[in-house]
Amino acid sequence: MIRLFDIFFSLAGLIIGAPILLVLLVLAWFDGGMPLFRQERVGRNQKLFTLVKFRTMPPNTASVATHLADISAVTKLGRFLRRTKLDELPQLWNVLKGEMSLVGPRPCLFSQHELIVERDLLGVFAALPGITGLAQINEIDMSTPKLLAQVDARMLQDLGVRKYFAYLIKTVTGAGRGDRIRESCR
To answer: Is pTM, for the whole model, over 0.85?
Structure first.
């Protein structure tokens, strides 16, 4: 049932959001070149897939987890996209393709070994990764791997249609601040 909701809402989001996506593509192009960012992430059953997001940092920025990135690396448009979570919109394509769900544990980088081990121990990789979930609306990010894995596992144990919609509504209405980034070291 949740997969049907994922297909319907991701397709609807891509169609209805097409004008917004187009405007953001153009703005992002002028903000820093290539507007889309592609990155290998760990998905269901630890299978790698290519996640698509709006680029919020210059193309030559090192590929690290958000909590390890420096805020000075984020463009002005990127700050807006992250704060409003609009940088996540292209992931609707990942959802439509069946690589992600709208609700699930955020997909991690293959280099985040501690998080991968913790999630593996708790069976989190049995589910599709998601754009949002319990951890995101409670501002728990990848800087606390053990806690994140525990919250992800708890979410998956209780995830049904009602909670699926509750997490989506809370995300759309502003719960969680988006990915945290280190303040500049300057």
So the answer is: yes
